[in-house]
Amino acid sequence: MSEPGTSVERPLLSPFNIIAGTIILVGLWLSYLRFTGGLGAVTNLDNNNAWGFWIGFDLLCGVALAAGGYTTAAAVEVFGMKKFHAALRPALLTGFLGYSMVVVALLYDVGRPWRLPYPFVLSPGPTSVLFEVGACVMLYLIVLFLEFSPMALEWLGERKLRRVLVRMTLLLTIFGITLSTLHQSSLGALFLIVPSKLHPLWYSSYLPVFFFVSSVAAGLSMVIFEGTLARRGFADKMDEEHKRTADAVVLGFGKAAAFVLAAYFAIKVFGVALDDNWRLLATNYGLWFLLEMLGFVLLPCFLFLVGVRDLNPTLIRWAAFLTVLGIVLNRLSICLIAFNWQLPQADRYFPHWMEIGISVFVVTVGVTAYRFIVTRMPVFYEHPDFSEGH
Amino acid sequence: MSEGFHSLQEFMSYTKGMLYLLSVGYLVAFVFFWRYLHDRENEDD
Questions:
Q1: Predicted confidence (pLDDT) per residue in A285-306, tens digit
Q2: Residues A195, A203: contact at Cβ < 8 Å?
């Protein structure tokens, strides 16, 4: 194993660099088209479909899947589950990069992105849910940056500032959990104003609760999923403690995810029962809804359950992967597939390839940044000069 | 509201009743869920 904390010489023309470089070059070209030609040049958005793939995938999925930061921080810092400590830094890094990419994607989606700060400085709209979402995401991104900073400061050897930030850890964690609870649920609340546009199987007055509970499952699963990928790609950057506790993290988070998914399944069924939507299950949309609920909620819940009971981390990792897919499916269903479901087919929205291309570009930038950080900063290992402060 | 209902009272009685039955079902199922998750740990003890 190479010594953690030192940069390993990696070939410049590696397969990852070639693919990522190509995607970034194409993405830059698409960005040029977007910012010179406007939304119409690269998207299929129109007056019926003002929110498209960038909101459905980049924002809704991005925020949900970045929930690993607050769930892990809550487990370790607030509930004192120190055995999961090794998972905290990777989770915070993923959260920070996830939210950063959400904001980057928002710059593409908002028609006049330079006006993003307007609600806070020029024309506040505090009665709007969107204002609350914007405020929470902005504040939480700052919190995540401060939580991430000790890793960068250890890399830079900056002791004083790092000490100040480490002392603020509990305060930042509590603030982060509060902000996450608020905006994860508010993203669901955004859809409360469209009861006639969103299919009844997905629409519910409990949408904020659904979004919040599913974000917890997404966060737990994402920590497991990301840990699995990191183990394959960056094993040389992990210290012994990280490797030793990896399976304990998977089992612990898998157990929590089983409970959360069981609760999520229950409240989703309650949602169908409360609006008496049983008969809609026998329609095409109903089959899609059943696929989402049985294949990507109940099945992973069962796999988590069996995996934890049989102490089988591989099964739990598969369950986490299914859950991540399920969250993506759910957010895309709400924002795109089951949205405007009554419109004639000709008026329905399907993303332009350039919209998907820009999303791939944004994700690739995030992955590249992740790779840059974990190969240089103490994310998977304790910095030998700062190990007392973790 | 479904066609079979003639008043909000009927609709609420039906859906709430269904919800209470489901809730009881879930509470019972949760006991089995918990036992399935933990019985191997108990065996090990």
A1: 999 999 999 999 999 999 999 9
A2: yes
Phi, psi of A339 (to 5 degrees): -90, 140
Sign of CA dihedral A340, A211, A114, A97: negative
Residue A106 in contact with residue A359, Cβ under 8 Å? no
> What total number of domains does chain B contain?
1
Q: How many domains does chain A have?
A: 1
Cβ separation of A273 and B11 shorter than 8 Å? no
Neighbours of A97 (CB within 10 A): 22
Q: For residue B36, is it within any domain?
A: yes
Is the CB of A16 inside 8 Å of chain B's CB atoms?
no
SS3 A250: helix
Give the CATH number of the domain where residue A337 resides: 1.20.1630.10
Write down the pTM of the prediction: 0.91
Q: List pLDDT tens digits, range A309-362.
A: 999 999 999 999 999 999 999 999 999 999 999 999 889 999 999 999 999 999
Q: What backbone phi and psi angles, to 5 degrees, belong to A333?
A: -60, -45
What are the backbone dihedrals phi and psi of residue A198, each rounded to the nearest 5 degrees, phi first? -90, 135
DSSP assignment letter at A3: P
C-beta atoms of B36 and A269 within 8 A: no
Interior/surface letters A210-249, b for 16+ CB within 10 angstroms, e for the rest: bbbbbbbbbbbbbbbbbbbebeeebeebbbeebeebbeeb
Cα–chain center distance at A277: 30
In a domain, B3, yes or no: no
Q: How far does the CA of residue A69 sit from the closest CA of chain B (Å)? A: 26
* A286: Cα separation from own chain's centroid: 26
Q: Is residue A122 part of a domain?
A: yes
